[in-house]
Amino acid sequence: MTLLAIDWSSVGIKTLQFILSFSILVVLHEMGHFFPARWFKCRVEKFYLFFNPWFSLWKKKIGDTEYGLGWVPFGGYVKISGMVDESMDKEQMKQPPQPWEFRSKPAWQRLIIMTGGVIVNVILAIVIFIGITWVWGEEYMPAKNLKYGVYADSLAKSIGVRDGDMILSLDGKPVDNFATIEAEMVLKEVKQMQVMRDGQTVNVQIPDGFIKKMMKNKQFAGMLYPRYPVIVDSVAKTAVFTQGELKKGDTLIALNGTGFTYYHEFDKLKKSYVDSIVSLTVLRGHDTAVVRARINEKASIGFRQKFPAELFGTVTKDYTFLEAVPEGFKRCWETLDRYVTGLKQLFTGKVNASDSLGSVISIGNTFPGVWDWERFWTLTGIFSIILAFMNILPIPALDGGHALFTLIEMITGRKPGDKFMEYAQMAGMILLLGLMAYALGLDFWRLFR
């Protein structure tokens, strides 16, 4: 077993983004419970960001409510008097109901209090997606712009995709945004890919079980890559040259006499010469030149190449605020639809739980290693709608479980007993904690695998 080298600056930035994003989500979610409870004159005993077993990092009591910051970053909570929740305050429930307690309120008020957090998360997601659309618009690289086609890894080649293929359509639907191809393959369970190869249209059949292979091999975000030449954009001051030097606009075509055309070939080749001096042949204008340079211990020569978006161009669509509103709703719905589709695939066995589940480690790792506000708000919007969906599931210990029992009470006119609610809450907490422990174990296993 080996543990990969860790870039601590990148980890720190990811961690800060994760903490900020989930602090926003948790605080607003709990406010969705807090304010309706106060409006209906329930006493709120605690309002916490993160959980605080044994001790709190900070706390302050204002009126009847203790506000605090816990040390376990898995969520947060509000403790409402007279409610069976994660605090499992059985002593309070043994006392006669008081006017300020949750259990003494009408069922419709209790339903609003319980669903308030979910409603806030849905509204937040919609607002975030509207804001992203309005501020940043939509920028992407069209698949048709990839003049050199794609570089297919071993998994893509196993179904018949070849280097140089140009992706035309999936199940007959034309592909526009290159970056969405693999997600569409998984979520739409595509059966056929159409590619342009040597001037002819070729149908590539996608076999049953291929989605599971994509997830198992962690290829969801890396099976097809743009194929592009190695063109120098800038050279770092730390680059070491013993003969000549690289210049902006140089196109690399050989390393130690071994020719290559595209970046993926160069990337593979240079890893064989880590921490050594190599000879680079470059095309400079209409002439060739030879440069001797050092490849450092990180397999880097010290230059930045032009990336596909710069070489092939992108399309940007700007939105006015009025145009952004319906587009924001659409993006929110599409995000929820993709998540639900993923869950269906999980429960139907089309993907393995061990390949798709993750804990806070996986979630935190989705944030980039550099601070990117567009990416930050996009992920926050995605997690907000996911949090809403997960919380409304009819599982005891979640908002949806409490809401379900309240709806049953409203329909039947019979309120579940406090003892039943205690056992249901306990069962739900055991289920959720077990799932969290399993997901955390999977993440540690992946780190050390």
UniProtKB/TrEMBL annotation:
The protein's topology relative to the membrane is: Multi-pass membrane protein
Q: What is its EC number?
A: 3.4.24.-
Please name the InterPro entries in this protein's record. PDZ_sf, Pept_M50_Zn, Peptidase_M50
Q: Which residues cross the membrane?
A: 6-28, 111-136, 376-399, 420-440
- Principal location listed in the UniProt entry: membrane
Family matches, as Gene3D superfamilies? 2.30.42.10
| GO biological process annotation, one example | proteolysis
Q: Where is the Peptidase M50 domain positioned along the sequence? A: 18-434
Family, according to the entry, reads as follows:
Belongs to the peptidase M50B family.
Which protein are we looking at?
Zinc metalloprotease
Q: What species does this protein belong to?
A: Sediminibacterium ginsengisoli
Q: What is the lineage of its organism?
A: Bacteria, Pseudomonadati, Bacteroidota, Chitinophagia, Chitinophagales
